[in-house]
Amino acid sequence: MPAVTHCLSPHAARPQHGCERLVWRAPYRSLVRVRPVAWTCSCRATVYELCLGGGRAFPRRTVRLTGAPRVQETAPMTITEAQAAWTAVPSGHAC
């Protein structure tokens, strides 16, 4: 019988056809102190986080395929905008 794994965080869905395209770029260094407040399961090669700091927020994407992980973020936005983007990313409505 195969071992059962239990993931504690949600998994991101595959991007849906016509998903909203987010602009992913190198980490934005002006927000020095940020903390993830929500994230997807780390059992997949791509992990998403919602980061918050300094009254701003943004989604972060980490891709771990080969070599060093590649971290990308959207531009900082209002917390309300970032929460809307965050809701869309794991559901596959934003990519």
Task: Considering the chains and any ligands shown, give keywords for the structure.
alpha+beta, 4 strands, single chain, 95 residues, 1 helix, four-stranded antiparallel β-sheet
3D architecture notes:
With 95 residues, the chain is α+β, with helices and mostly antiparallel strands. It has a domain at 35-91. 14% of the residues lie in helices and 26% in strands. It has one helix and four strands. It has one helix spanning 79-91; strands at residues 35-39, 46-53, 56-63, 70-73. Strands 1-2-3-4 form a four-stranded antiparallel β-sheet. Strand 1 (35-39) and strand 2 form a beta hairpin. The longest helix has 13 residues, at 79-91. The N and C termini lie far apart (36 Å).
Question: Treating each run of at least 4 consecutive H or I residues as one helix, how many helices?
Answer: 1
Low-confidence stretches: none
Instruction: Give the neighbour order of strands across the main sheet.
Output: 1-2-3-4
- Main β-sheet, in a few words? 4 strands, antiparallel
Ends apart, CA distance between termini: 36 Å
Envelope shape: globular
Care to count the β-strands? 4
Report the order of strands and helices.
Answer: EEEEH
Beta-strand content estimate: 25-35%
Proportion in helices = 10-25%
The whole-angstrom Rg is: 14 Å
Average pLDDT metric: 88
The SS-based structural class is: alpha+beta
